[in-house]
Structures are given as structure tokens and as C-alpha cells.
Amino acid sequence: MPFSQFSLSQKLVAALPDTFRSATEIQTLTIPAILNQQDVLAIAKTGSGKTLAYGLPLLEQLLAVSSHSQALILVPTRELASQVNNTLSLVTQHTKLTSISIFGGVDKEQQKAALAKQPSVIVATPGRLLELLTENAPMASNINKLVLDEADRLLEMGFWTDVQRIIEMLPAKRQTLMFSATFPKLLESKANELLNSPALIEAKKTEDAEPSINETLYLVNKGNKTKALIDQISRHNWRQVLVFIGAKDNADALCKKLNKAGLNTAALHGNKDQAEREATLEQFKQQQINVLIATDLLARGIHVEQLPVVINFELPSSAETYVHRIGRTARAGQKGIAVSLVCHGETEYLTAIRKVTQRELALQELDGFPVTDQPSSGESKRAPRDKQANRRTNKKKSIKQFQGRTKRS
Ligand code: ADP
Ligand code: MG
Q1: Basic residues bias located where (predicted)?
Q2: What single string gives the DSSP state of each residue in 38-50?
Q3: Residues 170-179: pLDDT tens digits?
Q4: Phi/psi of residue 243, each to 5°?
Q5: Following DSSP, what letter does each residue of 252-309 receive, concatenated?
Q6: What is the pLDDT of residue 392?
Q7: Buried b / exposed e along 93-124 (16+ C-beta atoms within 10 A)
Q8: Residue 150 CA: which ligand 1 atom is closest?
Q9: In terms of Cα–Cα distance, which of 100, 15, 101 is closest to 56?
Q10: Distance CA 32, CA 103 (A)
Q11: Which domains does the chain have, with CATH numbers?
Q12: Quick one: 316 exposed, middle or buried, by C-beta within 10 A (0-12, 13-18, 19+)?
């Protein structure tokens, strides 16, 4: 999103380097929330542009208020304090706003004098700032914006006690922002203490133009999956579809059914020899085969340019595999389609996938396929046909569950 689209003053935006054509993902997500005066918890990897993600909206707010209002940015190292101060000073150069950095190893009296001038922004390491504030507490009275930058490192490096003592000196009524590359459990509890109904914002792992994938998840009866799959492919007239299936034993059976339904389908799995696999893959690439059914293991070697559609016939037990599977679509910046057929028995996997992807991934009903299965898939209402079958089902289920747990931990 171009910077001009945000409610930011032209003065600030104009000061950005010409090479910054548009805001990064984390900037796009946090700038409006911070301008909205909300507390924010933002997680995005290193190099994603977090400094301006909080810097720009903070400066904007400081420009807007007439009363003395100051922002304090706490960072874990001296180098970062200089770096952040340089970045922000660049943006404030044509405004009335001022920014200073405070860190150890430099003359204290000079820093006190600089603080006494009430700069708009103070970028500081906790140790030295705490020393200065302890000697002159009133200097903190106008600080009503606080940023904990690189919060994970502030915590790791043992600065949290200092951070907390500084916070105790600040006005209680303030906006608090926490930015971090990672979000360990311990930081979670600190965030809970410090932030007031924060907007929780997480940028996706990779900043490099991640292609957008249109994910649709249909809840269907387990016994209807094959029909639903055929319906989806025929209805949309998809020409090149990669279907993921969990077990290779089922791949051939499914392949047969699809061919019977008139869909040009092949299966790729470990029971086929190398030559056969390569021939199948080539046919798929040439679109002589329209539907390819593959297990996860085999799918790793598949490189097809811009695969438009990926279908999960079953959800994988590991959330990472889900991400990997749907990543097969929407290559080269194209919008891709990922459809998953989910039955009640897979809701545990879905929960894990939602957690990892941080996406809602709402289940929808598929037209013409009403769901009649009951959620408690473990206990069938029908009496088991025989004890042997019953035992088989139970065994299968417990292994599945076990895999689900280990993969996620
Ligand atoms: P982080 O704090 O997430 O590690 P930084 O704020 O230090 O990231 O920014 C990383 C680099 O990206 C810096 O060199 C910065 O100048 C550059 N940068 C920040 N925002 C943009 C943008 N919108 N467009 C291009 N480059 C940007
Ligand atoms: Mg940073």
C-alpha cells in the first residue's frame, strides 16, 4: 500500500526515501491501528520495516497534538538506539519534531540537558535511561507513548526489570506498543501485563511478495469426499489440479473413481517406479493429464509453474505440511486457489493449521453436499460390524492423534 493512502501528513511521507514506494506488510497493518490510539502487539521478522511501522504513526500523532507529548522507544542495544534515532530524525527533518538517543558510555550531563529540552522522541537503552530518570523523575511526566522495540531481545538480555521500573515512572494513561521478531511464552505474559486490549498484528513469515492464495475449506461428510472432489473439479472446469491425499493406498482407488467420472487423472506415489513417476509428471505438465493425485512425499519433487489449483482431499496431520501444500499454487505472484475437503474427524488438524497460519479458515458448506455426519466421529452410532473392524478403526485413530500432537509440539 502506498504511504499516501494512510492518514499521514505529507511532511512525513515526503521525507521518506524515494525507494520506499509502498509500505511493508507490517507497516500496512500497524499504522492505522496506532493512529487509532490503540495499544499494539506486533510480530514481524527482522528486516520487515518495524521501525517505521511504529515510527510514522507515532510521529504523526506527536505532530497533531499541541500539548507537550513525548514518545519513548526502548531498545536493547546502543547500536539500535542510534539506528532508530537516525531513521526517525530523517523523517522529522522538515517538522518541528525532535528526536534524541540515550545510551550508556556517553556523557550523562549532556544527555540530561538533551532530555530537559523535552524532545518529541527519546530512543533509549533501558539502563542509562533509568539512571537519568532516577535522578530526575519529572522528566518522564510527558511520556504518554511507549514503544518496546525488539521486545524479545529486551527480555532475553535481562533488561525487563529496568524496563518495568521505567514504566512505573511514566504516566499510567498512555499508548503502549510492543514490537518483536519472535513471541516466546514469557513475552506473552509480559504483553498481557503491559498492554491494554491490544491489536494483535502478525506479519507473515516472508516479506518477499508472498503470493495470495484463496483458501476455501468445505465441511463435508467423510463418505462424500470423492463426489465432492469430482463436483469441484467439474464445476469449475479446472484444467490442472493437484490433489493431496494422506495415504498412498487410497491414491489409486481415488484415481480410478475420478477417471470413471471422466476426469483425466493419474496418481503419483511411492509404489510407482521412477520412470513411471517422471512420465506421469511430464504428462501433467503438458496437461495431457488434468488431475494429479499425490502423497506429500512425492509432491516434494513436483515443480509445475503456476499451478492454479491445489485440493486437499484430506487435511494433513501437520500444519506445516498444509502450508507447504497450498504453497504449490499461486507461484510467481499469481493468485492461486486452495480447496480443502474437511470432515468432522479432521477438526483437530484444522485447529492446528489455524494456529500456525493465524488465519480464520472458516468451514463452509458445499452446495449439494449437506453435512449429516455428527461431530463426535469417534463413536459411531451404528454398531460396529465386527470386533476386528472396530479394533482397526481405534488403532488408526490413536496413531493419527499421536502424530498430530508430536508434529505440533
Ligand atoms: P526491522 O526493525 O523489522 O528489522 P527495519 O525497520 O530496521 O526493520 O527496516 C529494515 C530495512 O528496510 C531498513 O533498511 C529500512 O530502511 C527498509 N525499509 C523500511 N520500510 C521500507 C519500505 N516501506 N520500503 C522499502 N524499504 C523499507
Ligand atoms: Mg527493528
Answers
A1: 390-409
A2: --EEEE--TTS-H
A3: 999 999 999 9
A4: -105, 125
A5: HHHHHHHHHTT--EEEE-TTS-HHHHHHHHHHHHTTSS-EEEE-HHHHTT---TTB-E
A6: 45
A7: eeeebbbbbbbeeeeeeebeebbeeebbbbbb
A8: 2
A9: 15
A10: 30
A11: 3-202 (3.40.50.300), 213-364 (3.40.50.300)
A12: buried
Q: CB-based burial of residue 406 (10 Å sphere; 0-12 exposed, 13-18 middle, 19+ buried)?
A: exposed
For residue 68, the one-letter residue type is: H
Pairwise CA distance, residues 337 & 335, whole Å? 7
- Cα 70 from Cα 73, distance rounded (Å): 10
Q: Relative to the alpha carbon of 26, which ligand is closest?
A: 1
Q: Is 242 helix (H, G, I), strand (E, B) or coil?
A: strand
Round to whole Å and give the CA distance between 326 and 339.
Answer: 9
**CA of 45, closest atom in ligand 1:** 3
pLDDT at 401 > cutoff 50: no
By the CB criterion, residues less than 5 angstroms from ion ligand 2 are 50
Instruction: Give the cell for residue 81.
Output: 538506539
Is the CB of 17 inside a 6 Å radius of any atom of ligand 1? no
**Which of 132, 184, 131, 175 is closest to 153 using CA atoms?**
184
Task: Choose the weakest-confidence range: 181-185, 213-217, 393-397.
Answer: 393-397
Please name the helix (run of DSSP H) or strand (run of DSSP E) that holds residue 26, with its range, or none: helix 25-35
The protein residue whose alpha carbon is closest to atom 23 in ligand 1 is: 23
Q: Which three cell numbers stand for residue 211?
A: 503470493
Q: What is the DSSP string of 318-378?
A: SHHHHHHHHTTBSGGG--EEEEEEE-GGGHHHHHHHHHHHT----EEEBTTB---S-S-TT
Cell of 42: 506486533
Run of H or E residues at 177: strand 175-180
Check: pTM over 0.70? Answer yes or no: no
